[in-house]
Design brief:
The chain is mostly beta strands. The protein has a domain of about 60 residues: GroES chaperonin (10 Kd Chaperonin, Protein Cpn10, Chain O). The chain has a 6-stranded antiparallel beta sheet with strand order 6-7-1-4-5-8, with no helix packed on it. The protein has a two-stranded antiparallel sheet with strand order 2-3. Strand 2 and strand 3 form a beta hairpin.
């Protein structure tokens, strides 16, 4: 999967992309809606609970984003998003204020004690 890195896309045939203001570009690794229980049972999207938050990986951030960096995992409400397709890959654009939590190894100091 080709992914935007930092301020733009890599490669000669691709236009650079720069996120603006407090916007965050994220990608979801698993198929949307489907998830697995701790016992390994596949739970289809039709059984999804209301107001369930989703984890996604940060691909790029705007210059005014203070709390996260590319490579972090973020927790957000799937209803508060904009979807975009870049070179055949699907991404989600969020605002920093729409993020509920950040998970990253760099946050080990001063963490809350919760781990993924």
């Amino acid at each position: 999967m080709s992914t935007p890195q930092g301020a733009g896309l890599s490669g000669d045939d691709k236009l650079p992309i720069k996120m603006l203001n407090d916007r965050i570009l994220v990608t979801i690794d698993s198929p949307e809606g489907e998830r697995r229980s701790s016992g390994g049972i596949l739970i289809p999207a039709t059984a999804q609970q209301a107001k369930r938050l989703t984890w996604a990986g940060v691909v790029a951030v705007g210059p005014n984003v203070r709390s996260m960096e590319p490579g972090d995992q973020v927790l957000f409400n799937p209803e508060d998003r904009y979807e975009v397709e870049v070179r055949g890959d699907d991404y989600i654009i969020l605002r920093e204020r729409d993020i509920h939590a950040v998970a990253a190894t760099r946050l080990a100091e001063g963490s809350t004690g919760l781990y993924l």
